[in-house]
Write a structure and sequence with these properties.
Layout: H1 7-25, H2 27-36, H3 45-50, H4 55-63, H5 67-74, E1 79-84, H6 86-90, H7 95-102, H8 107-115, E2 118-119, E3 136-138, E4 147-151, E5 157-159, E6 162-172, E7 175-180, H9 187-197, E8 213-214, E9 219-220, H10 236-240, H11 263-277, H12 281-290, H13 293-302, E10 307-312, H14 314-318, H15 323-326, H16 330-336, E11 339-340, H17 346-356, E12 358-362, E13 369-375, E14 378-381, E15 388-397, E16 401-406, H18 415-459
Helix pairs in contact: 1-2, 11-12, 11-13
Length: 460
Amino acid sequence: MISSIPFFLLLSLFPFLSSSSSSSSSSSSSSSSSSSSPQINSNSILVALLDSHYTELAELVEKALLLHQLEQALGTHNITIFAPKNHALERNLDPEFKRFLLEPRNLNSLQTLIMFHVIPTTVFASKQWTAAGAAVRHQTLAGGNGLSLGEDSSGNKVVDSAAVLQPDDVIRPDGVIHGIDQLLIPRSVQEDFNRRRSLRAIAAVIPEGAPQVDPRTNRLKKPAPVPAGAPPVLPIYDAVAPGPSIAPAPAPGPGGARRHFNGERQVKDFIQTLLHYGGYNEMADILVNLTSLATEMGQLISEGYVLTVLAPNDEAMAKLATEQLSEPGAPEQIMYYHIIPEYQTEESMYNAVRRFGKIRYDTLRLPHKVVAQEADGSVKFGSGDASAYLFDPDIYTDGRISVQGIDGVLFPLEENEEDSNTQKRTTTTTTPLVKVAAKPRRGKLLELTCSMLGAFGKVC
């Protein structure tokens, strides 16, 4: 049964519960808890940043979930913030790069970018900027080589390649904000963006014909050398289905010679993306706590398989009855029906249903398939009351795992009812045709017999 409060939420609340209990015991413990989590007053530089005219940077700080980390930094030292102007983020920034920063799976890159604009000390433009005209390098909260503070030929203040337009724009007792004309991009974030843009981080799988497998031994009839990065030669169902311990393994296990992908890291990334995206906590709880599907998916990705996960949101999972999850293996069977052994995006599925009407995708729950069709400009899965719409497209897409958010829980239809209905329709349509075709044939035979008997009587 799915708990009303996810496990990771209880872990996040545990420090606050422990600090509140310790503060009620004695005054000394309350002072220690306050020192571990400093209180930010209204005159702090962080509050000034959120209320300043640097609204684009303040919005990125909130989306990067860095408020708590910056509060901890202010508890130990003052800070200096280099804030880009709004037009530098709205007009002068590459739209693809901005889209890259706002994707949930690139949260680490966004945090590194924001921390690259913060120095853990107070540096005023009137003093402490340069030493005898030479550039001074300061470490940032993001680490790395830091920022170089100097002056150009005209005597204007510069930070790396950015010009300081408004030095000492906002001054507070715990820090200062300088306005700059462009965004400072660390090399690690730029390299990550280049890998995504050039598709070097995505392994393209070339479609090949199905291999010939001996049904007696479940081995390939003509084994061929598999190059590094190539897709697995056996179907995904042979890798998922457990077999006898004495039988030969249908696919190499984790850590084998053909393990070219880090499936565990990719599965961990997409689960963290679900949690940061919001609204899919129950799905993440099932994958991690109630089942071992996260480990199984990591093993499949490590062996070269690709997966598309149809993730029901929390509202859809809350509608499940207790009986639907209480039976042994029920959560696994439900999740298996929501995993497609193909790599599909929102664009590819929508183009397919627009062109072919209805598409039946294979699932890991054999032999059931999930039906997709176009409805109201989106993709609809299932039919009737057990249908679900593509609600949050492309939550996570890295070339091997694709996560598509849906607004309902899917269940396979009973195929026996469909077969019986088809047989009934066939019998009702064929029976009248047999009766109609038999009457004229019987009359012709009788007429032919009588004519032959009459001709025989005349001869006699």
